[in-house]
């Protein structure tokens, strides 16, 4: 099975062009499934649907979240579909199996006042402060995922027309940059980044103190530091800034389709979760303005 897993992952990387993080998730899920089969003395090519269900129940018993179990089943299904296409198995044992129902929870968000407080924390007196100010403003201004932000190169930003081009897998999207974010980013690129980089060939937009591309862990630590400086009790992650970006746009009149495009959601249902944060003022506007309200 090890050889087939290797071929499957190569297919996902080379043909499907999946990101490194997504590939890692597939690898983790399939290897965990393989270990379970080995422990049960089962052969992957002869596994029955009931044995797949037993594995799903096993994941539940050891405390895996419903979302994790659903992702595991999706990974296993993709693996068997690949095996079926390459004629390594005669049937897909996951065929007809339904994923556990996942209740979509309302994402954690910051209020406008909390965002303002957080973004005020970085000081512009040193290189790190200039970078951190630009980075936090950028994260809130664009709503981009942390992986997308740290993957950006300098030439992905169009300063003249005030937008950034985000590439995620095979897809690209242009996201506008507001005046405050653009100003902070311009100052960083002009006055801080040239001093921070050690190699003139460095392409990364955001770099660490060693002049190399910033990591996910580095980004998280920076946000955690300024959260504590701001004395905000809520847990703040890069994704909380993304949720706050979408929610505040919606509350201030942006349409759901535009927010979907900016967030890079392939399905509008992923964006609709922010409707839970619609405030009473918008409902009042609707009630006053709509002829059949």
Radius of gyration based on Cα positions: 23 Å
State the name of the first-level CATH class of the largest domain: Mainly Alpha
Please name the CATH topology of the largest domain: hpI Integrase, Chain A
Distance between the termini: 61 Å
Average pLDDT: 84
Broad shape: elongated
* Full CATH superfamily name of the largest domain: Intergrase catalytic core
The fraction of residues assigned to DSSP E strands is under 5%
What series of H and E elements makes up the topology? HHHHHHHEEEHHHHHH
Instruction: Work out the helix count.
Output: 13
CATH architecture of the largest domain: Orthogonal Bundle
Please outline the major beta sheet: 3 strands, antiparallel
DSSP summary, beta strand count: 3
User: Strands of the largest sheet, in order across it?
Assistant: 1-2-3
Number of domains: 2
Low-confidence stretches: none
Describe the model.
The chain is mainly α and 293 residues long. It has 2 domains: 2-85, Tyrosine recombinase, N-terminal domain (DNA polymerase, domain 1, Orthogonal Bundle), CATH 1.10.150; 112-280, hpI Integrase, Chain A. Helices cover 57% and strands 5% of the residues. The protein has a 3-stranded antiparallel beta sheet, with no helix packed on it. A hairpin with a 4-residue loop joins strand 1 (157-158) and strand 2. Helix 2 crosses helix 4 and helix 6 packs antiparallel against helix 8. The longest helix is centred in the first third of the chain and has 20 residues, at 20-39. The mean pLDDT is 84.
Name some characteristics of this structure.
293 residues; mainly alpha; DNA polymerase, domain 1; hpI Integrase, Chain A; 2 domains; 13 helices; elongated
């Amino acid at each position: 099975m090890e050889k087939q897993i290797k071929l499957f992952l190569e297919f996902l990387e080379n043909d499907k062009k999946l990101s490194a993080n997504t590939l890692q998730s597939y690898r983790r899920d399939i290897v965990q499934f393989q270990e379970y089969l080995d422990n049960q003395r089962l052969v992957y090519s002869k596994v029955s649907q009931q044995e797949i269900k037993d594995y799903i129940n096993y994941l539940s018993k050891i405390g895996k979240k419903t979302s994790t179990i659903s992702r595991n089943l999706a990974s296993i299904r993709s693996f068997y579909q690949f095996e079926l296409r390459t004629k390594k198995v005669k049937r897909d044992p996951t065929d007809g199996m339904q994923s556990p129902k996942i209740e979509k929870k309302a994402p954690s968000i910051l209020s406008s006042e909390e965002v303002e407080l957080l973004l005020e924390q970085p000081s512009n007196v040193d290189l790190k402060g200039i970078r951190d100010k630009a980075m936090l403003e950028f994260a809130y201004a664009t709503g981009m995922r942390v992986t997308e932000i740290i993957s950006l190169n300098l030439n992905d930003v169009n300063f003249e027309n005030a937008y950034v081009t985000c590439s995620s897998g095979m897809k690209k999207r242009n996201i506008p940059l507001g005046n405050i974010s653009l100003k902070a980013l311009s100052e960083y690129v002009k006055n801080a980044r040239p001093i921070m980089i050690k190699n003139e060939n460095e392409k990364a937009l955001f770099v660490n103190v060693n002049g190399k591309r910033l990591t996910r862990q580095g980004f998280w630590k920076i946000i955690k530091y300024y959260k504590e400086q701001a004395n905000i009790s809520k847990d703040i992650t890069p994704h909380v800034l993304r949720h706050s970006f979408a929610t505040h746009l919606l509350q201030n009149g942006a349409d759901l389709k535009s927010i979907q495009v900016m967030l890079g959601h392939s399905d509008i249902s992923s964006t609709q979760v922010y409707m839970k944060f619609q405030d009473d003022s918008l409902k009042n506007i609707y009630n006053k303005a709509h002829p059949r309200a």
